[in-house]
């Protein structure tokens, strides 16, 4: 049974799928490498550039920011997204989930920069890149408003929980509802 609207494509375009899966992988690896006790180590005088997990975490975090901005630009330009009929309640839940995920994808790197800037810590990236003064962040009033490191940690946990629910919902659509939602984000099957 075909659930697709006649004028709709059954799959997202290649670039949208690539952005989706690369972002999912990068966020997961950044979360796993998230340095526990980073603030304490920095207060003890530890140089973040000497800890490869921190360098990778910060590099992947900035990659998430770049990918998210590029994805948002692509969403405005890309071909029409697949339209799958579903109950209004499920459609609304999906919209809210996507809004929450997009919001977190933007807020996580921003809160990381605020956390670094509020404590005047450098941003350390792969390739020996080190930014000691983060523009608009270092010692700004906003950066000193909260303990952004704690906020960043909470948002990191939140995105992993929401991503897990997002994946579970896609599997539910695939296994139970059989409506093609999961397949929209997978490559088309090659004809035999």
UniProtKB/TrEMBL annotation:
Signal peptide: none annotated. Keywords: Cell membrane, Electron transport, Heme, Iron, Membrane, Metal-binding, Transmembrane, Transmembrane helix, Transport. Its main location: membrane. Residues 11-187 form the Cytochrome b561 bacterial/Ni-hydrogenase domain. PANTHER family: CYTOCHROME B561, CYTOCHROME B561 HOMOLOG 2. Belongs to the cytochrome b561 family. Its cofactor is heme b. The keyword Heme applies. It is found in: Cell membrane. The chain crosses the membrane at residues 21-42, 54-75, 96-116, 158-177. It is a multi-pass membrane protein. Pfam families: Ni_hydr_CYTB (PF01292). It comes from the Bacteria. This is Cytochrome b561.
């Amino acid at each position: 049974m075909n659930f697709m609207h006649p004028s709709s494509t059954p799959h997202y375009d290649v670039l949208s799928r690539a952005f989706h899966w690369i972002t999912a992988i990068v966020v997961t690896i950044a979360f796993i490498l998230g340095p526990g006790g980073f603030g304490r180590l920095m207060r003890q005088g530890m140089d973040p550039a000497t800890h490869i997990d921190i360098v990778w975490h910060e590099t992947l975090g900035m990659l998430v920011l770049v990918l998210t901005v590029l994805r948002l630009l692509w969403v405005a330009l890309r071909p029409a997204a697949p339209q799958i009929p579903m109950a209004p309640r499920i459609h609304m839940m999906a919209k809210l989930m996507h809004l929450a995920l997009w919001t977190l994808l933007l807020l996580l790197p921003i809160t990381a920069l605020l956390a670094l800037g509020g404590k005047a810590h450098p941003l350390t990236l792969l390739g020996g890149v080190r930014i000691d003064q983060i523009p608009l962040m270092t010692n700004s009033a906003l950066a000193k408003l909260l303990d952004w490191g704690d906020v960043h940690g909470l948002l990191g946990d939140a995105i992993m929980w929401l991503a897990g629910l997002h994946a579970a919902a896609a599997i539910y659509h695939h296994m139970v509802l059989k409506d093609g939602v999961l397949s929209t984000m997978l490559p088309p099957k090659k004809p035999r």
